[in-house]
Every structure is written in C-alpha cells, then in structure tokens.
Fold:
Amino acid sequence: MINIAVTFMRKLELEPDTYDEKFTVLTKGVNVEVKDWVLERIGTSKSILEVGCGTGALAVKMAQKGNDVLAIDKNFQMINTAMKNYPSEKDVKLIYQIGTIRELPAVEKSKDIIVSTFMLSELRPFEQQIFLRSAWKVLKPGGKLIVAAEFIPSGFWKIIFKIKRWWYKKKLRRLRLPSTSLVKWFFNYIEPIGFKISTETKWKRGSIRALELEKVGNSNGDELGYYRPPQRKFKGIQGQVQIYKCIFTGQADHIPIEPGIYQSGKPDEKSPIIVTANYIYTYIKVMRSLKGIDAWVLCVDSRGINVWCAARGDDFGNKQLIEAVEATGIDKITNRKTLILPQLSAGGVAAPLISSESPDFPFNILYGPVWAKYLPKYLKERPAKKPDKWKLARFTSSHRLRAFITHTTFLLRKIFLWPTVILLLLLLGLSFINTFWIGKFWRVGEIWLWIALANFLIASLFPLTNFTRKFLFKGIFFGILNLLFLGGITWVLHHSLLLIIWNSCFYFWLAFFSTMSFSGYSMTTSPAEIQQEYPIFRKIHLPLLFIGLITVTFGFIFF
Structure:
C-alpha cells in the first residue's frame, strides 16, 4: 500500500495534529527515510526554501543543522500546527509563512536550495511546470531543487501500482475526496525548463523517488525555458483506433494527452490559436479538422475529459485557461492576442472575469464554432455573427446513435459488468447443487438486452421530449415508455403478467437513470440547469434502484 499512500494526503491534511504520525504509518516509514536523505543532501549554512512544509517536521531539522529556512504551505492549519511546534533553540533561523507555488515568497536568485517532499502528486501537469519555473527563478546559479514524490514504477510493478491506485481512488470517491495526480510526465519537464538531475534515489521498487535537480538553463541555451510536448499522431489507423476506443468503451475513462502546445501544419507568430481539451478523442477531431491549416493548438488540462463535460464539471474553466497560458508561455511565440475557444466551453469559461482573476492575462477570448468540422470555414471567414449551425449543438441522429453506443457500453462496463460476473459465478455454483439453475443462465443475457433496448429507445425517440428542458421530466417520460416497451418484450418471451409487475420498477429506473445520463450527450440543457436537477434526481433514483433490484431478483428466482 506504500505506493498509494500519498493518495490519502488530502484527507490527512484535515487533521494536522496527527498528520505526521498517520502519514508515517501509511508510508510504512518511507517518509522518514526520505527526510533523512534530504538532510544528508542539504549540508549546513544554506539559504533554504521548503515548499509544502506541512507541519514543519523537516523544516525544523533543516534549521537545527544551521540553515536559514523559510517554510511555506498553502494550508493555514498546517502552518498553525507548525508554529505550535516551533523549536526552542534561540539561534534557529526558521520562518513559517502561507505561500503558493506561483508566488514563492523569495526574491530571484536568493536561495541555495529548494525542498519539496510529497507535494508533486497534488499538482496537476501545468502546475508542476509552473512550480519548476518558479523554483528556477528563486534559486541561485547552480542552486539545487530537491523533490520527493510518488512516481509510477516500471515493469511488473506498474501493474500492481495501477491496481492499488484504482482501489484507493474508489475509497476516495466514497469519502468524497479529490484524488491526487500521477506524476506521469514530470521527467519530461526537467531539462526544457532548465534543470538537470544530479542524484536520484528510489524506494519501494521506484514508486517513491527523491531527486536532486541542479539549475543549469534549458537545452536551447536560454536561461529559463518552457516545455512543449511532442506531436501526437492523429492520422491513419492509429488515430482511428483511438477514436473507436473512446466510443466503444463508453467514453467513461479519462484518456488524456499531455496538455500543452501542439502544431497544425507550420504555424508562425501570425497563426491563429485554437484552444481545446486534452481528451484524445477531442484532440484527434480538432487536428483532423485543421488539415492544411497552420495553427497553434493549445490543449488545456481538462483531465482527459471532453470539452462539454469538462466545462460542466469545472475542469475547463478560467482556472485551467489561465494556467495553460502561464505554463506554456504561448504568448511568447505569437503576435496574436486572441484565443479561439470551443463554443461548448462557454459553460465553464467566463470570459468577462478573466481579467479580474488574472490582470496580466495577455489574450482576448473568442468562442469559435460548436463542432471542430466548422473550424476551417470559421478561420477563413471570421464572421462577426456565427450562423446557428456553428453555435447550436443539435442532437442529430448521428449524435444520438453515438450516444446510444457509448452510454450502453458505459452501463455494461461501469455498472453491470461485475454484478453480471458475480451472478454468473453464483449461478454456476448453484447449478452443481440443482440443475434448475442452469436454465437461469440465459436470463443474464436478457438483462443486458434490457439495457441495450432501453438506451436505443431513448436515443431513437429523444426528439419526442423536446416539449421540456428538464431531464427529470424527460426521464419520467422515458421511464413510462420503457416500462411499456420492455413489458411487451417480456410478455412475448415469458407470457407472464406477474413477471412484468416484478420487473416494472427496474424497467422504469433503467430509462430514468439513462435519460439523465443523456444530458451529457445531448447538450440541450445548460450545466447550471442540470446541476439544479441532480439533488431531486438522486432522491428519486436511489430508492427506485433499491426497490427495482429487490423486485427483479424475486422475478429472476421464481419465474
């Protein structure tokens, strides 16, 4: 469990008085070994900045070695706890302060060493780059940045790591806590920004690593650089496989590419800047639409979620846009002062507030067409007013077909797969006791048929619900329709009115739940309206599911 222990740091930070003790238990003492390693590297009589100091346990020991230590953390409770444990020695040089990675409280070229332990996994990719750049500015020439963090191990242990992380993320969801980020691309940033690795030490098969980075300047000979990810393939079979992977796995998994600046063609300082999400499906669609056009493509860190869903879920908003511009330095490579955003990001990006949130933000914002396929014509014509087909996301038959496929596979993979496996194993075991249960195997396939038919019903007849914007009412409409539809199918297969009655609640729930999920595909209702409906939806959905599962079980056993 050591390699996932950092995942619970945010929960432990809510209890600063017991943080060190519990974190040591979680890491099985590796955090103590990391601190000892850091203390060996820093020496004495150094000017040190610790970023993410927590309760100050390491800061105290560094100061007691004769170093001048400034320790910062963004968590006031942690700083407050650290102050309570301030060392008693009179000659100790130690200051605690609230601070962030963006505005390190030190003048440029003033620190010999910067230390940060177990903080990187709390930073997203762009934040990691911003932290490296901030550290570079504050360090003296040849200064050292010492970081320790959770990394992905290699080989066989990578599989074990991912299984454990999946399990811990499920626990975090139950606790309603945000997950930490994998330090996936950090090594890519080191040299372009201006560091080199001097020393590296690993614990627990590489899942915990400590790095000593030396400030040297970037690979282009400049003092401080920016990282740009390598171009991703989007053409041919490989790109098409990625498209199908997203569609036929329910688009339920976050499939991110590295956020950053990509190129369509050979852009220069006069080329347009297209902003989009770092979801692989979205990236491929945008790049294919820009065929033959020289443009910069800025992928914000939407956590591998498509534009519409990311904007609804606070993953494609002002914060992410400001962060992308700051981390990439895109304003340094272009004379253009306009970012062209996808129309569907308007639910998350509040353009009028950008200047107040970031006074030095160097761009104006325009919302481009709703679909990437209209980008070429939009870039050519630049109309003052977009035609309706460029700004309205209509839920056409082709979109409904894709929604049917993706949502059906989502339900089968994410909700019904494991219950189905358990049910099949249970039936297999019971069949050895009584052959009666052998005849129930095909009924499992019937349940999957219900799921597919319910989603097909919603996708094909969705325009019938245009009489209301409320998905609760749409869900009730399709719940009743699905009850009649699947009830008819059940009558044809079993000729049992009683079985229909037993299954009726589940039939209704299946369409009611699926209709609300279709809100993410249809784009016919604003994110704010959907959020208002969710509290009522949950109050209806959960009792329906509970009752439906009980009654369908009775029907499954006795009919």
